[in-house]
Amino acid sequence: MSADTLARLRLIRTRSIGPISYFQLLQRFGSAQSALDAIPDLARRGGGTLPRIPSPAEIEREAETVASLGARYLICGDPDYPALLAEVDTAPPALIVAGDVALANRPCVAMVGARNASAAAVRFARMLAHDLVEHGLVVVSGLARGIDTAAHDGSLDRATIGVIAGGIDIVYPPENDRLQRAIAHRGLLVAEQPPGTEPRARHFPYRNRIIAGMGQGTVVVEAAPKSGSLITARLAAEYGRDVMAVPGSPLDPRAQGCNLLIRDGATLIQSAADVIETLRPFGRDRVAAPKIGFEGPVGTGDASDRDRRAVVELLSQSAVATDEVIRQSGMPSALVQTVLLELELAGRIDRHAGGRVSLR
Questions:
Q1: Which regions of the chain does DSSP assign to beta strands (E)?
Q2: 2.30.42.10, 1.10.540.10, 1.10.10.10, 1.10.760.10: which CATH number matches 305-359?
């Protein structure tokens, strides 16, 4: 492991540093080691305690575990890192993968849906996934019960990617043990969390952003309103990807989410041909080069105590968009981003999906 990769992993594994702050630190200080050296001063300015930074020995032990599991790291910026995922502002700085890494940079479509799916929906999802991989697409899903499992079952023989919420050595749900192992050997298994991490509720939205970010589009097959599947669909729309949904009976609560998506503009899907037709224009006129993580303005100067107080006074325990904080503060965007970075390193704020922040 190179010294730069070691420093990057130490930065990534520092608890108070998320994807946004990781990329901001790299952009501001030029290297992971320089960012590590600057963290104590930044945390002090933010009015909090110094976050615990893992030692080199801890990261080396983690790397040994990853290797012993037959897995490897993909650092954002590496040639093998999924190019579409790298376009997302909150792209994971590092992934741990096992299997055929080349699948991640082939044309992918995400498939998600209800865990308590109907038998008809499970059968349809399995057939749809099979037909999609027969046409050269890779199916990405989350190894959950119901639709996710059916999507992997239908695509396992050709091209499937499973994105899990915990460590790459943790099986969840337990009944998918054989399926998860098969994906690691015949497809691609992807995890963001370090080995040994048991999946918690907070991990699943992180997993959902990876699923949405890897796909050219997302297909939803049965989903209740406010379900995790709809979160994945919303993220896909935010990333500029196609959102597709399979319609269902208005009498079935499991179909309400899909019907709402279609009402709001999602493409109605009845077959693999519909998915392929929807995705076919993807890539045309895409003149912008894929970005590697955060590209917003980051200040290089110091914020004053007055600047920090002004930003903190605008925050509460309810998440608010960073753009709204910038607008109401009347301060330059780069200065607000600097203050938020200091507050995050000090453990005083949390970042949420959609570029929102809240007081911890």
A1: 72-75, 94-99, 108-113, 138-141, 160-164, 188-191, 217-221, 242-246, 267-268, 320-321, 349-352, 356-359
A2: 1.10.10.10
